[in-house]
Amino acid sequence: MMLCNEEMREEILSRLHGYRYEHTLGCERAAVCLAQRFGGDVEKAAFAAILHDITKQFSKEEQLNLCEKYDIIPCNVEISEWKMLHGKTAAAIARKEYGAPQDVCDAIACHTTGKARMTLLDKIIYLADYIEDTRDFPGVEIARVLAEDDIDRALLYCFDQTLTDLIERAKLIHSDTIAAYNALAAKGVRWRDAMKLEARNV
Ligand SMILES: [Fe+2]
Ligand SMILES: [Fe+2]
After folding, report:
1. pLDDT at residue 33 tops 90
2. What is the pLDDT of residue 154?
């Protein structure tokens, strides 16, 4: 049985507007591409991508109401940086309203922060969200080049950039993001030594 038929996909997309709609379609394309490239589940990747930002437009009050409703207990960082909660609340909606399987929900839940033990599907969604076609922030091209052949390197680059950016802006850092960074760095993953970056001149 299909996880998400065309009718369900259209209904989900009808809840998204403007940039978020374009970003979600971009994320779906990127997730499918990454799943094909790295041997992931293409259908699950597409389903998770379509739903990943489904609650992003909600206010702080709405996010906290959803947490209450779905037994999500926000940590101190999530209460302060409440926009982070959209990953976890979107995962709850995916589960309750669209019957998404656990691994799809898990990938949606960790797409904003990352976490220590990320599955291939978690990595695909995190990276797809970062590199999809509509993204044009400084450094995104490096992430795209790294993602051509090593998902862990690309992911480490994303966390490296995200942590640096949070520190520069004096923002709070979620412990799961540090755990995600450490998990890759401890495995010996490095991105700076990727010779391809020099060759491509990015
Ligand atoms: Fe998001
Ligand atoms: Fe997103």
Report:
1. yes
2. 97
Q: Which ligand is nearest to the Cα of residue 22, counting in written order?
A: 2
How far away, in angstroms, is 91 Cα from ligand 1 center? 11
b/e map of 37-55 (b: 16 or more CB within 10 Å)? ebebbeebbbbbbbbbbbb
Task: Give CA–CA dist 178/32, Å, rounded.
Answer: 27
Q: Is the predicted pLDDT of residue 17 greater than 90, yes or no?
A: yes
Which tokens sit at 26? 């971009």
Q: State phi, psi for 25 to the nearest 5 degrees.
A: -65, -40
- In the reported structure, the alpha carbon of residue 173 is separated from the centroid of ligand 1 by a whole-number distance in angstroms of 16
116-168 confidence digits (pLDDT tens)? 999 999 999 999 999 999 999 999 999 999 999 999 999 999 999 999 999 99
- For the whole model, what pTM was predicted? 0.96
The ligand with the least distance to the CA atom of 130 is 2
Say yes or no to pLDDT of 44 above 70: yes
